[in-house]
Amino acid sequence: MIIAIDGPAASGKGTLAKRLALHYGLRHLDTGVIYRAVAKAMLDAGADLNDEARAAMVAQTLDPATFDDPALKSQEVGAAASVVSALPKVREALVSFQRQFAEQPPGAVLDGRDIGTVICPQADVKIFVVADPAVRARRRTLEAQARGEPADEAVVLADILKRDERDRNRAAAPLKQADDAHLLDNSHLDIESGVRAAIDIVEAVRAGRLRA
Ligand SMILES: Nc1ncnc2c1ncn2[C@@H]1O[C@H](COP(=O)(O)OP(=O)(O)OP(=O)(O)O)[C@@H](O)[C@H]1O
Ligand SMILES: Nc1ccn([C@@H]2O[C@H](COP(=O)(O)O)[C@@H](O)[C@H]2O)c(=O)n1
């Protein structure tokens, strides 16, 4: 089974994807870390983030072992990721890695921005996760503070809104709900209720009570 989870920044898609993978015994890929890894390599090299040829070369030679680097979580790297991810050649370079990951048995849960629309249009279940921007900013701020990083909620909110705007309006694989994706609004759900709602969607699709 392949489950595609898309949604805007900090909507909770990674949290749901991990929990669904655990629940169904599937592998999980947070595709955001791939773009973050490209961005961090460009930042570390002092490269122009809009240098498409260079960023595509970085994308082609990425080492998945770097995906665990905690430095990828920073706001600076997230913002840079939304710049490099708009470059078509960067996206092209990363398609086959993501598709191969999804297609290996027993299947996988992938979360990102274009999983249901571009990477796995044939996914068995697609979920589009949203939450109010203010709620997302609050959660992300609490997360940063829990890691011991100072975070200003207003700055986090501005970053989230800017990234959403860039991700939605780029020409290459923009963030959007696939026609056959099921909307899950996480704004007023705690994590356990969100996970339950996501499992309910998967079960309803499998039972034919909801369209795939
Ligand atoms: N339903 C929820 N209630 C409270 N906190 C939540 C909920 N869902 C997620 N969170 C918290 O919100 C933060 C963002 O969640 P998460 O990292 O899953 O979002 P994301 O959409 O994967 O983010 P990104 O855009 O960086 O990939 C995390 O700290 C997570 O623990
Ligand atoms: N499938 C994807 C996943 C991510 N991006 C871009 O990367 C940025 C960081 O992603 P996070 O999920 O870790 O926040 C994000 O803002 C997107 O620009 C993408 O384009 N496609």
From TrEMBL:
Gene Ontology CC: cytoplasm
Subcellular location: Cytoplasm
UniProt keywords, alphabetically: ATP-binding, Cytoplasm, Kinase, Nucleotide-binding, Transferase
Ligase recorded as keyword: no
E.C. code: 2.7.4.25
Annotated ranges, domain Cytidylate kinase: 3-202
Main location: cytoplasm
Catalytic activity: dCMP + ATP = dCDP + ADP; CMP + ATP = CDP + ADP
KW Magnesium (keyword) present: no
InterPro entries: Cytidylate_kin, Cytidylate_kinase_dom, P-loop_NTPase
Binding of ATP, residues: 7-15
Entry GO MF terms: ATP binding; CMP kinase activity; dCMP kinase activity
Source organism, top-level taxon: Bacteria
HAMAP family: Cytidyl_kinase_type1
Name by which UniProt lists this protein: Cytidylate kinase
Species of provenance: Rhodopseudomonas faecalis
Gene: cmk
